[in-house]
Design brief:
By secondary structure, the protein is of the alpha+beta class. The chain has 3 domains: about 20-325, Zn peptidases (Aminopeptidase), CATH 3.40.630.10; about 335-370, no CATH class; about 380-500, no CATH class. About 30% of the residues lie in helices and about 30% in strands.
């Protein structure tokens, strides 16, 4: 017994020494004077993966140019096996020219391997994806090698990078997610205005009305005050993520209610989801890189601490809301057109003054923090997709939607939209299609070409409704790839299945 005890102690000492002697993360090794290249990132992650204990490294996919997309999986047991734990996904650098998120993940990973931080993994299983867009990163460009903005690709899922990220999510159904970005406050309009944003970290919650309200309330009322205090105590400034402006030139809102980004595409599936935006450098991507990377790391670490302290509450909340999403709930209203509106409040926003060269508070009068629905539809039992409509069936496959061959039920009714005309509607400053239509009851279904049934009672049920309703301002019909499906004077090819 004594011999066994000695062996165990020796093993622990050797493991601790191995962690202590882990190589410096590339940003530290480079003294923050250059960006971490893809070869440096790859070599470092592979070295970290050889450390004993918590971390397993997995390649979850490849970029357009064949570069690895890495997932760093931290768990004190087999990842995802212990159902008492909560699963967190943090991913960075969807935009290749937003570098500090990647550098922050590379700082965070070795910190989590230190013995004093192992307590987190008694309640948490964590995945860090340091770099979603390695091709863009290597040339310091926003888009991927196909010229696609990955953070506008989460609904249509045409790019290998976003497909890989969603396959990862679908496999583990993470209860908590964070999408890490940067924002640039140095635009010409802001310079003319005389002020600019100057906070280290901006934190955004889910704003879509179709994200469960209980999750939105916990995010706004509990997490935001926590993370603002957490960052302030560690000498990083922070504020609510609120794009738009400059004040009195354009309105200020709380991000977007679109579901086609890395925060709300997971939030609409009942996840406790956030976006974190660190401030970019003014002249190049290495300006003030150390402070920026450490701020991003601190915000990520703050999320881990909050979830650790509230894991039971969050797990219960997410579980209950996902059960509702997956249960038959025909008739529940889904907002398919929304707008940002004022609630009468003014916003005191911290800005840097080009006049005084100091931080100051500016009052925003045209402040629109509320998302209001302007057009709802009842949630159907599901939708029928014609078998010859390969564009939609391919999309359903990429989204991993549950689907079945058509099984006609005696209590079902089939309804189809007729597109009378096509107008447009404003969506956050852009014009998207807005058809005028009528919904007609079908006396019978055509037997040819046949149909595939996609039920709305699944985790992606709200996403399904938003995607397939022709009047949805967030739907597939608003994308060039699917615009041909919407024709004036023709029926919309997708059929709604409802109860009599």
């Amino acid at each position: 017994m004594k011999k066994l005890l000695v062996i165990l102690v020796l093993f622990c000492v050797l493991s601790a020494n191995a962690v202590a002697q882990a190589p410096l993360p590339p940003p530290v090794k480079n003294t923050f004077n250059k960006l971490t290249s893809y070869p440096e990132l790859s070599s470092y992650i592979e070295l970290l993966g050889k450390q004993p204990g918590l971390l397993k490294v997995e390649v979850i996919g490849h970029s357009v140019k064949g570069r690895n997309l890495y997932a760093l999986k931290f768990s004190s047991s087999e990842f995802g096996r212990d159902t008492s734990k909560i699963k967190i996904l943090i991913f960075a650098q969807q935009h290749g020219n937003e570098q500090s998120g990647k550098e922050g993940v590379l700082l965070l990973a070795p910190e989590l391997l230190k013995p004093e931080n192992h307590y987190l993994f008694g309640k948490i299983d964590l995945v860090l994806v340091p770099q979603v867009n390695p091709d863009g990163s290597e040339v310091n460009k926003r888009r991927n090698a196909n010229g696609m903005d990955l953070n506008r690709n989460h609904l249509i899922l045409t790019e290998p990078e976003t497909i890989a990220l969603h396959r990862l999510f679908d496999r583990y159904l993470f209860e908590v997610t964070m999408d890490v970005h940067e924002y640039s406050p140095f635009g010409e309009e802001w310079q003319k205005y005389g002020y600019r944003k100057n906070t280290d970290e901006n934190i955004g919650t889910t704003t879509s009305l179709n994200v469960p309200e209980s999750i939105r309330k916990l995010s706004d009322n509990d997490y935001l005050p926590f993370i603002f205090r957490y960052l302030k105590d560690r000498n990083f400034s922070s504020f609510t993520y609120c794009p738009g402006g400059p004040p009195e030139i354009d309105y200020i809102r709380h991000s977007t209610f679109d579901i086609n980004d890395g925060r709300q595409s997971f939030g609409i599936q009942g996840s406790f989801s956030f976006i974190q935006e660190g401030m970019n450098g003014k002249d190049d991507s290495i300006e003030n890189l150390q402070h920026r990377a450490e701020g991003q790391m601190t915000g990520m670490r703050g999320l881990l601490e909050y979830v650790y302290m509230n894991h039971a509450r969050i797990r219960t909340l997410v579980s209950n809301e996902r059960k509702k999403l997956c249960s038959p709930d025909p008739g529940r209203e889904i907002s398919i057109q929304s707008v940002h509106v004022s609630n009468g409040q003014e916003l005191k926003i911290p800005l840097y003054s080009y006049f005084s060269h100091k931080d100051s508070l500016v009052t925003v009068k045209d402040y629109r923090p509320v998302v209001k629905s302007v057009y709802d539809v009842g949630k159907p039992l599901g939708y029928l997709i014609p078998k010859d409509c390969t564009a939609l069936l391919d999309w359903a496959g990429r989204q991993s939607l549950v689907q079945f061959p058509l099984n006609r039920q005696s209590g079902d009714q089939y309804m189809q939209y007729m597109i009378n005309s096509i107008d447009s509607i404003d969506f956050e400053g852009e014009k998207v299609v807005d058809p005028e239509l009528t919904l007609n009851l079908l006396k019978k279904l055509p037997s040819d070409p046949g149909f595939i049934f996609i039920p709305a009672s699944q985790l992606k049920g709200s996403l399904l409704v938003l995607a397939l309703e022709p009047k949805s301002m967030l739907g597939l019909a608003t994308y060039p790839k699917y615009a041909h499906l919407l024709k004036a004077g023709k029926p919309w090819p997708v059929i709604r299945v409802v109860k009599k």
